Amino acid sequence: RKIHAFESQEYWSLEAHLQSKNPPPFKAKFSRYEGKKLDLKNENQTKKIISAVEGQDFTVSKVSKKKKKRNPPPPFITSLLQQEANRKLGFSAKKTMLIAQNLYEGLELGGKGQTGLITYMRTDSFRLSDEAISQAREFIEQTYGKDYLPVKPNSYKSRKGAQGAHEAIRPTSAELDPKGVAPYLSKDQLYLYTLIWQRFISCQMNPVILDQTQVEIIAGKATFTASGSVVVFKGFTVLYQEAATNSDTNNNQEGQLPPLKKDQLLNLIKLEPAQHFTQPPPRFTEATLIKALEENGIGRPSTYAAILSNISGKEYVAFEKKRFKPTELGFLVTDLLIKGFPDILDTAFTAQMENNLDKIERGEVKWNNILKQFYGSFQKDMEKAKQEMKGEILTDIICEKCSKQMSIKSGRNGLFLACTGYPECKNTANFSRDEKGKIIMDAAPEVKESEGVCEKCGLPKVVKNGRFGAFLACSGYPECKNTRPMAEAQTKETTDI
């Protein structure tokens, strides 16, 4: 599978800062020229538009107003709980499930004794019992009034293949509000329980109602657009606000607009051009990775946390700034497995296998037929891998000593570049990746002799750099592979002194 490096592209934006007779000032974005959509790709193109609109009247050509509803989010299922707890509370999927397990098993609530606070936390069904819905509706009417209560209960459709045996994740009783149970819960337990309780109650409330205004402004042959919205009715947001996602942040360009009407003349404060560059898709957070797993049909509510824990525990990824970053070991293992087992290392195969397991559970297919289908191709791939998988990945780097290809190999001190001409050529080197992921051979580290000799063969020791920093190695490598971390060597020298 060919991986294409992301290539950043330049683009420009142009905003007009405008003012009407009434506050507030607002911004409008350039969108069309001579009635046609125009994307600004460079500075010269942007300057031409600026020249064309400077000195022109900015006139409102169209005002569109409409009411918009935003419905409450559904109650939690496992994946949504893990995502929201990660975004709002900073909890890992593993931590979320451990706390949820405690809430489910029950806690001592004073005179009420051991009480389970939530329903089963491993579920992919949005189903709610009639009794739970009745409790929520009663609480909403008593606390917020009839305006916040829908005529009919809100219902949410579960995705195809969801297991309907369990309900959505909800409090066992709407009467167990967070304030009442707070004295008996730890801080993190209270945070998560509050999230679950508020999400459940709010899913049975009326939607938010917005007055949305869209405005088109003409300046010569150019068209600028602006939009804004005002909350008319808060609806479910009086109790619960969803955590913003990356797409929400990027798309939320609406601001407050003054009252505007068609043919109204506006004052131009300034034109503001800006240069931008397209950005690669952001690395996965725990929340976005769980969402991707669910969308691709990989895993089940009971396995999301384990998947995230495994890839981190086996050092296939590192966690930097709350995002997953593939390690060199992750790159190596993935490349080897994709090359050796292309069918299995495909999201479609994994999703289909999950579907097949569900069919076996429902008695729709025989388990031995599914296994026969799997092992037919798997056995061929396995035999081929035994012959061809050498535990190395070829690179485009050419050995400076013998002109053969260099490959990435794994050793006791980490990954390194090695000449494919071994044992005739013993050239090795460390490597790194540039911003596009391309393999770059590192400059050879300064090698200096250390005091002492190798305990195994008597040759001088040298200092080398590896995956975990500097270490002592025998200069007789590869015949003698004796190594020792620098920390151990320094401790031994200090002890000897």
SSE topology sketch:
Blueprint: E1 10-19, E2 26-33, E3 36-37, H1 43-53, E4 58-70, H2 78-89, H3 93-105, E5 107-108, E6 114-115, H4 130-144, H5 178-181, H6 187-202, E7 208-219, E8 222-233, H7 246-251, E9 265-277, H8 286-295, H9 304-313, E10 317-320, E11 323-326, H10 328-340, H11 347-362, H12 367-388, E12 393-398, E13 405-411, E14 414-419, E15 428-429, E16 431-433, E17 439-441, E18 449-453, E19 460-466, E20 469-474, E21 483-485, H13 486-496
Antiparallel strand pairs: 1-2, 1-9, 2-3, 2-8, 4-7, 4-9, 5-6, 7-8, 10-11, 12-13, 13-14, 14-15, 16-17, 18-19, 19-20, 20-21
Describe this structure in words.
The chain has 497 residues and is an alpha+beta fold. The protein is built from 13 helices and 21 strands. The protein has helices spanning 43-53, 78-89, 93-105, 130-144, 178-181, 187-202, 246-251, 286-295, 304-313, 328-340, 347-362, 367-388, 486-496, and strands spanning 10-19, 26-33, 36-37, 58-70, 107-108, 114-115, 208-219, 222-233, 265-277, 317-320, 323-326, 393-398, 405-411, 414-419, 428-429, 431-433, 439-441, 449-453, 460-466, 469-474, 483-485. It has a six-stranded antiparallel barrel. Strand 14 (414-419) and strand 15 form a beta hairpin. The longest helix has 22 residues, at 367-388. The two termini are 56 Å apart. Residues 489-497 have low confidence and may be disordered.
Write a compact overview of the structure shown.
The chain has 497 residues and is α+β, with helices and mostly antiparallel strands. The protein has helices at 43-53, 78-89, 93-105, 130-144, 178-181, 187-202, 246-251, 286-295, 304-313, 328-340, 347-362, 367-388, 486-496; strands spanning 10-19, 26-33, 36-37, 58-70, 107-108, 114-115, 208-219, 222-233, 265-277, 317-320, 323-326, 393-398, 405-411, 414-419, 428-429, 431-433, 439-441, 449-453, 460-466, 469-474, 483-485.
